[in-house]
Design goal:
Elements lengths: L2 E3 L2 E2 L5 E4 L5 E5 L6 E9 L3 E11 L12 H4 L7 H17 L22 E9 L4 E7 L6 E3 L8 H16 L7 E8 L5 E7 L10 E5 L2 E5 L9 H12 L6 E5 L7 H5 L3 E6 L2 H10 L6 E4 L13 E5 L8 H10 L3 E6 L2 H11 L3 E3 L3 E3 L9 E8 L1
Parallel strand pairs: 4-6, 14-15, 14-17, 15-16, 17-18
Antiparallel strand pairs: 1-5, 2-3, 3-4, 5-6, 7-8, 7-10, 8-9, 10-11, 12-13, 18-21, 19-21, 20-21
Length: 384
C-alpha cells in the first residue's frame, strides 16, 4: 500500500500531498506533517482524492474522533479544537494571499460549543439485511455508499433523539428504507422539533414552522428553508455587523428570510432583496411591523438601490457575487460594504476587484460549523 507525507491543509479542508510520480493527492482524515497510507476514492487526470486508512506517523494535534461516522459528517473531529481554529484563520489568509491581498486575519471566533450545535440535519435511511431493520445513515465522504450510524454528535440532541424515534416507528410497521429519500429534522433554540420523511416519488410535505429570535427580532421560518444552522454563533456575527452600521440607508442583498437586515437595521431605511420565492414570502412575514422594503429579484438586477450614502450587506451563496453587482459597487462606491461569506475563496475574488476603491478592514472568521472545514468569514469595506 502506498504512503505519503501530508504537506499542508488546503481551502476545502483536505490535506495536500504529492505522490511519487509528482501527481497531487487530496486526502481526508489527515493533519499536516503526518505520514499515512490511503485508499483512493476518486481519480482525475491531474490529481486524485483519497481517505487515509492508516496513520503511520501521527501529528501531535490529532485527537480521537467522538463519532464513528465522523468522516461523513465532520471530518475535523480528529483535530485538536484550538488547532482547528488556527487552521481556519490560516486558510482564510491563504485565500486572500492567492488574490494578492495582504490583510490581517483575526483569530477565529467560537462560542466554545464544538459539538451538539447544528439545529438541522438530514439523514439517509439504511436497510440492514442482517436484522431487517432501518437505521439512520450518512454517505461516506467521497463515495455514494451509505453507512448506518449509532451515534452522531454534531446535531442538537433533540434532533438525533427524534430521528431514532421516527425510525423506531418505521421499523415497528416494517417499512422499507427504499421508499424514502431522506429524513429531515430541525429544532429551534428552545428544543421544539419539526420533522418530515421525504418519500420517493411524492411531493415533500409542508413542515410546521419554527420560531427563533435574533438580537430581539423574532423570525418564523420553514425547517426546510433558509435559516442559519448555528444560531448562537450567528448572533455573535450580527452583533459585530450592527456595530458597523452608521448610515440611515441599508441595502441587504441575498437576504434570505431577512435575518441579517431585520436584526441589525430594522429601524433604518432598510431594503431587502431575495430571489427565492419561498424565502421572500417568509421575509415579508418577518418584516411585518417594520418599515423594511422587501423585493423579490436577483440582487444584480436591483443595483439602482445602491447609493453613495448607503451600507450594502452581502451574504451570497458559495459562488459569490454576480459580476454585474461587483461592477455596480465599483461604480457607485457606497459608504460601506459588509460582506459575510461561507466561501472565502469566492469572497477573496470579489474583494480583490473592489480593493482599489475600498479599504479592507481585518478579516474575522467565525466557527459556524465546528469539527468541519467549513468557514464563515466577515469583513468590512469602507469607501476610500
Amino acid at each position: 500500500m502506498s504512503e505519503v507525507r501530508v504537506e499542508k491543509l488546503v481551502p476545502g479542508g483536505q490535506g495536500l500531498a504529492t505522490l511519487a510520480d509528482g501527481q497531487k493527492i487530496f486526502l481526508w482524515n489527515v493533519l499536516p506533517g503526518e505520514l499515512v497510507e490511503f485508499d483512493i476514492t476518486k481519480r482525475k487526470r491531474r490529481y486524485c482524492e483519497a481517505i487515509a486508512t492508516n496513520i503511520i506517523e501521527s501529528s501531535p494535534q490529532r485527537v480521537t474522533a467522538r463519532d464513528d461516522c465522523y468522516l461523513a459528517t465532520s471530518p475535523w473531529q480528529v483535530f485538536d479544537y484550538d488547532f482547528e481554529l488556527q487552521q481556519k484563520a490560516q486558510l482564510v489568509q491563504e485565500c486572500f494571499r492567492q488574490q494578492k491581498l495582504d490583510v490581517t486575519v483575526l483569530p477565529t471566533i467560537t462560542d466554545g460549543h464544538d459539538f451538539h450545535y447544528r439545529n438541522k440535519m438530514e439523514y439517509s435511511l439504511y436497510w440492514d439485511n442482517n436484522d431487517d431493520q432501518i437505521y439512520p445513515a450518512f454517505h461516506l465522504r467521497g463515495t455514494h455508499r451509505k453507512i448506518p450510524i449509532q451515534q452522531s454528535s454534531i446535531e442538537r440532541p433533540e434532533i438525533f433523539q427524534a430521528a431514532q424515534q421516527i425510525i423506531t416507528e418505521l421499523n415497528a410497521r416494517q417499512a422499507a428504507a427504499r421508499d424514502y429519500q431522506s429524513l429531515l429534522i430541525r429544532c429551534d433554540q428552545q428544543g421544539r422539533v419539526s420533522s418530515a420523511l421525504f418519500e420517493k416519488g411524492k411531493a415533500h410535505p409542508i413542515m410546521p414552522q419554527l420560531q427563533d429570535s435574533l438580537l430581539g427580532h423574532t423570525y418564523s421560518y420553514s425547517p426546510n428553508g433558509f435559516f442559519q444552522i448555528n444560531l448562537p454563533v450567528y448572533e455573535l456575527v450580527l452583533q459585530n455587523i450592527a456595530a458597523q452600521i452608521q448610515t440611515d440607508q441599508v441595502l441587504d442583498l441575498y437576504a434570505g428570510v431577512g435575518s441579517i437586515g431585520l436584526s441589525v437595521a430594522h429601524d433604518k431605511q432598510l431594503t431587502l432583496v431575495e430571489v427565492n420565492a419561498a424565502a421572500y414570502a417568509e421575509m415579508q412575514n418577518n418584516a411585518r411591523g417594520t418599515t423594511a422594503h422587501c423585493i423579490l429579484a436577483k440582487s444584480e438586477e436591483v443595483t439602482d438601490y445602491i447609493t453613495p450614502n448607503c451600507t450594502v450587506i452581502l451574504d451570497p451563496p458559495r459562488a459569490g457575487c454576480d459580476t454585474k453587482l461587483i461592477a455596480k459597487l465599483q461604480q457607485i462606491r457606497p459608504a460601506k460594504i459588509i460582506y459575510l461569506s461561507c466561501n472565502p475563496i469566492t469572497q477573496a475574488r470579489d474583494v480583490a476587484t473592489l480593493a482599489a476603491d475600498f479599504t479592507i478592514s481585518a478579516l474575522q472568521p467565525y466557527n459556524f460549523f465546528p469539527r468541519t472545514p467549513h468557514i464563515e468569514n466577515l469583513l468590512f469595506l469602507t469607501r476610500k
